[in-house]
Specification:
Blueprint (H helix, E strand, L loop, with lengths): L4 H9 L9 E8 L11 E12 L3 H10 L6 E9 L6 H14 L6 E10 L5 E6 L4 E2 L11 H4 L2 H4 L2 E6 L6 E8 L6 E12 L4 H25 L5 E11 L11 H12 L1 H6 L2 E11 L6 E9 L7 E8 L8 E9 L30 H11 L8 H14 L16 E9 L4 E4 L11 E10 L2 E12 L10 H17 L3 E5 L10 H6 L1 E4 L9 E6 L1 H4 L6 E6 L2 E7 L8 H20 L2 E5 L2 E3 L1 H9 L1 E5 L3 E3 L3 H8 L8 H4 L1 H4 L7 E3 L2 H12 L37 H4 L1 E2 L6 E2 L9 E3 L7 E8 L2 E8 L4 E5 L11 E5 L3 E2 L1 H16 L4 E4 L4 E2 L3 H5 L2 H13 L5 E5 L4 E3 H5 L10 E5 L4 E3 L3 H8 L4 H8 L1 H11 L5 H24 L4 H6 L5 E2 L5 H22 L5 H18 L11 H10 L1 H20 L6 H7 L1
Parallel strand pairs: 2-3, 3-4, 9-10, 10-11, 18-19, 19-24, 24-26, 25-27, 26-28, 33-37, 36-38, 37-39, 39-41, 40-42, 41-43
Antiparallel strand pairs: 1-2, 4-5, 5-6, 7-8, 8-9, 11-12, 12-13, 13-14, 15-16, 15-17, 17-18, 20-21, 21-23, 22-23, 29-30, 31-32, 32-33, 34-35
GO cellular component, one term: mitochondrion
GO molecular function: acetyl-CoA carboxylase activity; ATP binding
Protein name: CoA carboxyltransferase N-terminal domain-containing protein
Length: 1076
């Protein structure tokens, strides 16, 4: 220990009362950090002297030092000062140094000067008597706190610069690497005094206060400094003993520390703090034992805090302390996963006493990625694991297995492309850092939908290698990994952070080529070409083509020794572009755009179709500086003007935007939750807690001013605060492309645990904004309104694209049809609304999953809008129903009256109005009542127009729709969930059975499988059995009970046809089925 606090207090108490020097001497023990059992204890002779006013230090210090006669003594000088200002420290430092320079006593090794001030914190100055210099890094550190801060662990690898702090108990250092001057870090260290009788909430509040103070000071220092890539916060918790009962058990400390960290996590990450280290002594409840303990919280992504709870123990074989790894984990997860690269950490590093390690190669690459506003590629496994924790913690209770969260949530096995064998090799153990700018993994994800695990292929750019550019090595790995996903039918995820195709130049020729000037004395006249001397050309004939001209070898073409210098990378770009297009057709493809994606990176992102874009990421073909150079003036200030989320979310390229990389990975996991395990996997209905037989509480409003999303999701009534349920399972609907084609709503949801694609209609008017182009001086922001219930070019294309995406994902489709038609104005016709509307028919015509079209309450489906979603487009897959309050027809009733009943209104008045009948009789009798007749007609015309509209409207009711076969049934909205949950399950089980018994590649194959199913029932049931008339619940029971027989029947049919083709006799279908 240093001189006791009690002794110091008594000494300071008498400072201003007595100017006479007092001497207190004794032996003091110093131990670094927590005072571990086997730590070396440094015993030092300390003499404490009071000298009164610090102004007299020059005269009193020589007397004090002359009395020291024990070698290695530390002289502790206590004094006071009457003044305090901002420059007091520097003035006192110089004054004390001047006083020390003339002292001579080899027995004194160090001098510590304490200056007490009436209106500021005490000041401490440390001087090394060997060098006569102040140890600035220790200034204002209480001597009792000095060994606890562990500064010796910093000084081995770093040069320290102490930064002034408004709090003398807090110490901030800017550390510069001794071997790598480019490495700069901040170290924040402080001692926190906590009574051992504090409760958990009191300790948490205290730690939060200290962490927030650390963030503030580091943030200010970051503003004044440059090149600092990370920060470290160290807290030593000094537990002061009391006579009261200890309220916190040893098990409480980890939770308390993490709760404080969690509440400050965002502030810590914004201050670039990637590690928080907390040391303390762990007491038993009755102070029966003391245990040196350390908690390390490391987070290199901002979202994956990895917690280590360590304790020191005595080693009988060594004179130094060892440590035991008690446990580790992530937020909400018991077992943590560290970066999966060999050599990422030193297993022998002792976190209690060893020096802080310098920046590793991983740290350097991670810094490059962070500067590009993205996550380092090898940190993505951590994000996936954290995202899976979120996925598991957010599932309904009924779906949670026991144990709640599996111990191992994901497994990443890296894929390497062997250039010699041109094969993809999978590593089962962690590999070294990638030597190319691309990394691929085969990943096993333990997700709630598949607790046994599902596999995906993940491909990611490494932006720390040649800024993520594509050469043939990157292209080959991308191509091989994507091809693997297609061969095995696995979903493919691409994390895009790149700079497009790589550009290179011959390094050999760049050093030796010469210029053939027109005039050697005047370079401004230009040059005739580049050439090589004969001596330079020797050995380079294979990498450069020249022609002899005079005495020079003029260069006519450069091949280069290096690979991937130019357009061969464009050949590779074509390779992966074609592969990505094929992958979209064969498997489910997703892309997360982070940092930036340029050129071919932007194309393959778009070819993957389903894009999640981070807000600070850009999707561009050419960077802003290059475009400015092309335009000859500074037009664009950033890449965000070209391809930021404000552009890509409004033009339909980006499906979803997120605030950070972690949210992006979470979005990918959510999208994956709606897909099947692989291409050949069957229906996977998830457990659900939202009852299938409940009524739908929310009813759409006739005035159409309510958000139509409420009928999908439900919402809380603003007046009663009661939750009104929607059509789908609660909280299951997730919208995509919300800022583009706003008159149509698309997304994914679940109906009794079955994932479906959703298309609904915006009934309210929306505002569309077209941004101004800075490159066009006369360009201005344009805003215009689009009416609800109308298909415009953008919303029609959005509908077609959504249908295509859902079909590729093997999702059933639910369309809430509520369109009055297509917009047919000149601008919209020019913008190809007709073409995009026809795309809807194209996609529905080839849809291979069940499609339910439902006209909701007060909805209407008219004209061309009906034509593009009619059942006859795909009669085997599409099913259309309507609510009893819905309407449909060629025109709206007003339009029908105008076209068909305009001349019938007056005859109606003559036929139905008694007063008019009397007037007509009088007119026929010869009375002049023509004015009265005309006045009566004019009076009643509005009323009879409404009567005509009502008459026309009665032709548009679901009653007539069903009578003429336009719809298959009338389903009231309140009971729609009950009906469609059963109908959808029946259709999905039936469709799943077709996949198992037949090869389904087209709608014709589905029709054939349906006929086989009907034939099976014809051969196994009575003649009056009609499959389509069987109720849904009974049909589901039949399909599940006789599934194996039906599949065998269908397979035998395939064998029978194959036998006929090759002349081989095969059993008849019925006999073959009866065998099973």
């Amino acid at each position: 220990m240093a001189p006791s606090d009690k002794l110091l207090r008594e000494c300071l108490k008498d400072l201003q009362k007595n100017d006479q020097a007092e001497e207190v001497s004794g032996q003091s023990k110093f131990s670094h950090g927590l005072g571990l059992p086997n730590d070396e204890i440094e015993e030092t002779n300390v003499i404490l002297r009071n000298i009164g006013d610090v102004k007299d230090i020059s005269t009193r210090l020589p007397n004090a030092i002359a009395m020291v006669n024990v070698y290695g003594t530390t002289l502790f000088i206590a004094s006071y000062a009457d003044v305090s200002d901002q420059e007091l420290e520097d003035k006192l430092s110089e004054k004390i140094k001047d006083a020390i320079m003339g002292l001579e006593n080899d027995c004194v090794s160090h001098i510590v000067v304490l200056v007490a001030s009436s209106n500021s914190y005490p000041l401490f100055f440390y001087y090394n008597m060997e060098t006569r210099e102040e140890v600035v890094s220790q200034r204002n550190i209480d001597l009792a706190h000095l060994p606890k801060l562990g500064l010796h662990r910093l000084k081995e690898n770093y040069d320290l610069e102490k930064i002034k702090s408004p709090h003398n108990c807090c110490h901030l250092y800017k550390a510069t690497g001794k071997h790598d001057k480019t490495e700069k870090r901040f170290f924040y260290r402080t001692v926190v005094r906590i009574l051992d009788s504090f409760a958990a909430d009191e300790v948490t509040a205290c730690l939060k206060k200290v962490l927030k103070r650390a963030c503030s000071e580091i943030a200010i220092a970051l503003y004044k400094s440059s090149g600092v890539d990370r920060s470290h916060v160290f807290l030593f918790i000094d537990r002061t003993s009391t006579n009261k009962k200890i309220k916190m058990s040893p098990a409480d400390w980890r939770n308390v520390v993490y709760m404080a960290y969690r509440d400050c996590k965002e502030a810590l990450w914004s201050s670039r703090v990637n590690q928080v280290e907390i040391d303390f002594i762990l007491f038993g409840k009755r102070r029966s034992f003391e245990q040196a303990t350390k908690i390390l919280i490391t987070d290199n992504t901002g979202f994956t805090p990895f917690i280590k709870f360590l304790r020191a123990e005595v080693s009988n074989r060594s004179s130094t302390s060892n440590w035991v790894h008690v446990d580790a984990g992530m937020d909400g997860f018991e077992y943590g996963q560290e970066i999966m690269v060999e050599g990422c950490c030193n297993p022998n590093w002792n976190p209690f006493v060893d020096h802080y390690p310098v920046r590793s190669e991983i740290d350097k690459r991670r810094l490059k990625a962070h500067l590009s506003k993205t996550t380092y590629v090898y940190d993505y496994p951590l994000l996936f694991q954290r995202a899976l924790v979120v996925a598991w913690t957010s599932v309904p209770e009924v779906k949670k297995p026991k144990p709640f969260i599996p111990q191992k949530l994901c497994s990443f096995r890296e894929l390497i492309f062997d250039e010699s064998s041109h094969e993809l090799i999978m590593k089962d153990t962690p590999g070294t850092l990638s030597t190319i700018g691309m990394v691929a993994w085969r990943v096993l994800l333990i997700v709630p939908e598949y607790p046994e695990g599902r596999e995906v292929i993940v491909i990611a750019n490494d932006i720390s290698h040649h800024i993520g550019s594509f050469s043939m090595q990157e292209h080959n790995l991308y191509y091989a990994a994507s091809k693997l996903s297609r061969m095995e039918g696995l979903p493919r995820l691409y994390i895009a952070a790149n700079s497009g195709a790589r550009i290179g130049l011959s390094a050999d020729l760049k050093k030796i080529f010469k210029v053939s000037w027109k005039d050697k004395n005047n370079p401004l006249d230009g040059f005739d070409g580049l050439y090589l001397d004969d001596s330079d050309l020797i050995g380079l004939e294979d990498i450069v083509k020249t022609t002899r001209y005079g005495n020079h070898n003029h260069i006519v073409g450069i091949i280069g020794k290096e690979r991937d210098l130019g357009f061969e990378n464009l050949v590779g770009s074509g390779l992966i572009a074609g592969e990505t297009s094929r992958a979209y057709n064969d498997v489910v493809t997703y892309t997360l755009v982070t940092g930036r994606t340029v050129g071919i990176g932007a194309y393959v992102a778009r070819l993957s179709r389903r894009i999640c874009q981070v807000e600070n990421a850009d999707i561009i073909l050419t960077g802003a500086p290059a475009l400015n150079s092309l335009l000859g003036r500074e037009v664009y200030t950033s890449n965000g003007q070209l391809g930021g989320t404000q552009i890509m979310t409004r033009n339909g390229i980006t499906h979803s935007s997120v605030s950070n990389d972690f949210e992006g990975v979470c979005q990918l996991i959510r999208w994956l939750s709606h897909t099947r395990k692989h291409n050949k996997a069957g229906l996977n209905q998830q457990p659900f807690i939202d009852p299938a037989d409940r009524l739908v509480d929310f009813v759409p409003s006739p005035n159409k001013e309510v958000d139509p999303r409420f009928m999908l999701t439900g919402h809380y009534d603003e007046t009663t605060l009661e939750y009104l349920t929607g059509f789908f399972d609660k909280d299951s609907f997730e919208e995509i492309k919300p800022d583009w084609g706003k008159t149509v709503i698309v997304g994914r949801a679940r109906l009794t645990g079955i994932s479906v694609g959703v298309i609904a209609v915006e009934t309210r008017s929306v505002v569309v904004e077209i941004p101004a182009d800075p490159a066009s001086p006369d360009s201005q922001v344009k805003t215009f309104q689009q009416a609800g219930q109308v298909w415009y070019p953008d919303s029609a294309y959005k509908t077609a694209e959504a249908i295509l995406d859902f079909n590729k994902e093997s999702l059933p489709l639910v369309i809430f049809a509520n369109w009055r038609g297509f917009s047919g104005g000149q601008k919209d016709m020019f913008d190809m609304v007709l073409k995009f509307g026809s795309y809807i028919v194209d996609e529905l015509c080839s849809y291979l999953q069940p499609v339910i079209v439902y006209i909701p309450p007060y909805g209407e489906l008219r004209g061309g809008a009906w034509a593009v979603v009619d059942k006859m487009i795909n009669p085997r897959c599409m099913h259309i129903y309507a609510d009893s309050r819905s309407r449909g027809g060629v025109l709206e009733p007003e339009g029908t009256v105008q076209v068909k009943m305009r001349k019938d209104l007056v005859p109606f008045i003559h036929r139905l109005d008694k007063v008019m009948a009397d007037l007509v009789c009088r007119h026929k009798a010869g009375y002049d009542v023509e004015k009265e007749i005309n006045a009566r007609v004019e009076l009643l015309l509005p009323t009879y127009r409404n009567i005509a509209i009502a008459f026309a409207d009665l032709h548009d009711t679901p009653i007539r729709m069903k009578a003429v076969g336009a719809i298959q049934g009338i389903v009231d909205w309140e009971e729609s969930r009950i009906f469609f949950s059963r109908r959808l399950l029946r259709l999905c089980v039936e469709r799943d059975l077709y996949d198992e018994g037949c090869t389904i590649t087209s709608v014709a194959d589905i029709e054939h499988a349906y006929l086989l199913l009907c034939r099976y029932f014809k051969e196994t049931r009575k003649s009056d059995f009609i499959w389509d008339d069987i109720p849904d619940i009974k049909a589901i029971e039949i399909l599940k009970k006789e599934r194996s027989k039906i599949v065998s029947f269908m397979l035998n049919d395939q064998l029978y046809k194959l036998g006929l083709r090759f002349g081989v006799l095969v059993f008849s279908s019925f006999k073959f089925a009866s065998i099973f």
